[in-house]
What we know:
Helices cover about 40% and strands about 15% of the residues. The protein is an alpha/beta fold.
Amino acid sequence: MLLDQIKGVNDIKAVDPEDYQDLAQEIRDFLIEKLSKTGGHLGSNLGAVELTMALHLSLNLPEDKLIWDVGHQSYTHKLLTGRREGFENLRKFGGMSGFPKRKESECDCFDTGHSSTSISAGLGLVKARDLQGGTNTVVSVIGDGSLTGGMAYEALNNAAKLETNFIIVLNDNNMSISENVGGMSKYLNNVRTADAYLNIKEGIYNTLKEIPRGEKVVKSIRRAKSSVKQLVVPGMLFEDMGITYLGPVDGHNIPAMLRVLQEAKRTRNAVIVHVITQKGKGFAPAERHPARFHGAEPFDIETGIPAKPRTTANYTDIFSTVMTKLGARDEKVVAITAAMLDGTGLKRFRNMYPERLFDVGIAEEHAVTFAAGLAAGGLKPVVAIYSSFLQRAYDQILHDVCMQKLPVVFAIDRAGLVGSDGETHQGVFDLSYLSSIPDMCIMAPKNKWELSDMMKFAISYGAPIAIRYPRGEAYAGLKEYRAPIEEGKAELLYAEGEICLMALGSMVKAAEKVKEILNERGRKCSIINARFVKPIDGEAVEWAVNNHRLVVTMEENVASGGYGEKVRDAADKLGASARVLQIAIPDRYVEHGSVEQLMQEIGMDEKSIVDRIEKEMESAR
Length: 621
């Protein structure tokens, strides 16, 4: 196998050019086989195989620097830099990350995970190179979906002023996770299919070839990058900014890419290399359903069907169902997503009420301020965004929504630990950054019925409000406990004495198990379903500290600024003698692995919590 020759960085350069396509096929076969077992980002990687090979053939890593935007398309890069064995434990606890990691290889020059960052990071590396007298090449790879993010344009604006080489590869597959939307997608489609330009160019070249010395004229025109392109291709956005534009080039044609990359390396300014690729290329199920294979679970290779089909509803499913019902009841209910139509469960809402669903692309800041405008105009907007992505819109939440007390509902999916995507995607900061904002109300449901009730409450709340819920199966326990949702009011589930567990959202299920273990050990244990982080239920805290020796707060959020910190502050103000034990995410970044493994590793599984409670009770004697 050709892939056996790739044992380390730059080994690809020893491969015969006639074997490039065979190697590309071997890489695809390898990725499909491995990811069918481990799961992972399949579609984006299959589409970037030849592009990655061309980059590795053109560059001299690790001296040259290659930055992958988002980074979920870096699997071929990892293969070509000697990390083949790491795919056995891809995205597993203690195994290789699914994203570039500087600590993993010196060929990963910048950690990524969120979109629209690679141009800014690359520009920083260019400036660092120039200030230190370096001569290495810096390449940032960015997808067309990431170009909907405003940060990319902030970076392009600065890159346009460069008088030194900086290569930006635009990997254009017309997809982010869901299909791309908006003006940039339309612009790139026009460039991609500019028949007027292509026909004129071919006509001129063919005519010139028929006359004496015509071939030399054609070569001269190609070297000069004929102004025909600038006259005919719509907009020429990048050229107008002052950035050289090369392309579009077939991203699955390695010789063509090698030629254009060589040309790009000769420029003395920032240059865009526009590469057209197909997401999911080489695997029919991924070609047909690229969104489904963006982040795939283990699957059957023959059919593409998940190896373990989901049989129970998750929280996203519950949100999806409730949104369609709310949309039917109130025509003022509208929904906003940032390129995550499927991931946030809003596809059904779009199908039923297409004029009331707004997909703004990868543009979380715009999504939030756009929602504020919708609310100011009299509508009831629901913004559905993953917890780790909503971090990007902190200022817009504070300044544009909460400062004006506008009735925007934030449906925060993937809150808490998300598992195999790792530290860049763990949603463990939202309680902290949201609760620091005045006039923000924050809730978390204990089970699927409570999520439904909270959504209905949120729509009628009339002010900024957020509901955070985890990834994965929606808890179906505690159905009999369904007290009406009242602002700032917790729910008492069990009242026994000695120890009180004040659990929030996903941790209520864990609290039930902890109570069961403590009861078996002869300890009495109460449980309060916190429901609200802000405003906190002061009466519930007072009852807990006055009737128990130990109050234990439980939350899937970092300790700093979280729910437990607020309970401790309230208890201190009451001057209560009861101790407060805070169970929360430690003050560090949590890497990839299954949620169960990660909970155990950070001491938040049921057994670890019980051990910590017992230790606290012993020290309190």
